[in-house]
Fold long-chain-fatty-acid--CoA ligase.
Amino acid sequence: MLNKHSCINWDGIAVTPVTQLTRGSSATVTVRQSEMWSWIAALLAGILSAHLAQRLWFPYFWKDALFLTRVIRYGARLEIYKRTSRVVTVVDRFVQQAQRIPDKAFLIYEGVTYTYGELEERSNRVARVFKDAVKKGDTVALLMSNEPDFLSVWFGLCKLGCAVAFLNTNIRSRSLLHCFRCCGAELLVVGADLLETLEDILPSLQQDGITVWCMRRDSPRPGVHSLLDQMQKASREPVPAERRSVRCLRTPTLYIFTSGTTGLPKAAVITHLQALKAAGGFWVYGATGSDVIYTPLPLYHSAASLVGIGGTIELGATCVLKKKFSASQFWHDCRKHNVTIFQYIGELCRYLCNQPMNEKDHRVHMGVGNGLRQDVWREFLRRFGDIRMCEIYGSTEGNLCFMNHIGKIGAVGRSNFFYKLIFKYDLVKYDLVREEPVRDHSGFCQHVQKGETGLLLSKICSQSPFFGYAGSKQLTEKKILRDVFVKGDAYFNTGDLMAEDEDDFICFRDRVGDTFRWKGENVATTEVTEILGLVDFIQEANVYGVQVPGNEGRAGMAAVIVRPECRFDGKKLFSHVLRELPSYARPLFIRLQESLEMTSTFKQQKFSLVESGFDPCSISEPLFFLDYTEKSYIPLTSSIYDSIVSGQKKV
């Protein structure tokens, strides 16, 4: 009889006792569990170490990765359009959205809501009116203020395959005629409220064979056709899609005019490629179809039309369109319409900060635009809450765009290794005296070091083409630098002085024409403007350089608006600039103004200020001079002016 500890060998087969087998298996399992936990601990330690290393050395890795993923996804769509020669334009996308969500609010204007379906039908009526008057490829000029029919006419003409020239509503007479001639428009649609602006040039337009249509129900004068009554009679059925079909992304769709601060406006050529890139801006920043976008900017400007309206269409969102920006109505409008995203440009945010109220009872979570200075940025967030301000850098005609997706205060964009593989740009040394890039003995431009200020250039290539200006090869060529780093290369000259810091953030320093030299040093007007803005009695400042006879370079001067409840204090301002600015950057002259001259897109005008100089006999507004003896800014009299000009008083 066998007991439980016996071992028997049957036919050479060894049989292990049950107890020993159980104990061996348990030991093996224990060892394996121990090894598994060791591996898990090592894996967790590795993940934690990698996370800490990423936070320490690559703090923006995941935000950069998400942003680049979106950029690449959107870019892949455009690449498919190019390769298949089947382009889905912004207007095609609008038609798709009108079919998908016809009853959704597309536009809210002065309290009235217009759905995607309604704007689609109204644009069809416009297309029906003009289908025999224009042919595919023609250019039609549009002179209208912000209103729903701006979009109806724009989309209707695009459905006929026309390119549309957006005319700045502030230009008049000679400049307006120039705009027609350089873009080659043969037909003009003008808003009812702007017809009088054509009074002086209407005979010239008619002599040039340009047909004029007005957004009215009856003809206001001979030779001007009424459009609203014709639209009412026209069918709302769409014209054949073939009429608007596009096979090449480089086909022009719009002409948008630059502000022309130092000359006549230039017609920047906007192709379908540029329009589609701009329309993806909100989506890349993470906006969705549920957002409500507030656009108080003029539609003839690329920020409102391409980024604002185009971006709204891309998302299938809703746009609240304002006829004209109003600082006092801004937050009321945002609350009333549940606005979540607003567009800004230039000094718009400063105007809001100048309002007396602090407003945080709103749903706004994002602002998208450009030109937001650091001091205004901080004040805006303090006054109005944690709003993500998304700066976009890029000119209307340019071939480069930066986006500050991180939200770092003061940066206009962010770059990294992968971004530079896609977008070829460089910062080069710039000579402010000669007003040209610095070239070495071989004739090539020189890179600046990290943190140094340089002229921003963007390489012109198949991925980033530059389409230039309509009607002027000379103006187009002026914006191109050739033989920059190698013989035969070509770069778009942005005219902007920028710097890139150690963390790859791009910061705007100044426009080439705005930065000036004094006492052998470079003075950046934006930096001086920010310093002056810290003085409690200064509401706004515009800094520029003026010629002083007998001196090289240009002396600093600032046009200043004093806050309504304050008065100008020369001693306080003297102490402030003495403490905050180096001697060469301190404004020698102050000019008090009731309002600063602005472009229609809220950018400060400097040209006329520079031209007028600092002569108290020709300037009626109060002028002040930086006097180190008096330790104050003192009134600039004719005798002081004469002593400066004659060289008796050193500056």
In short: The chain has 20 helices and 32 strands. The mean pLDDT is 89.
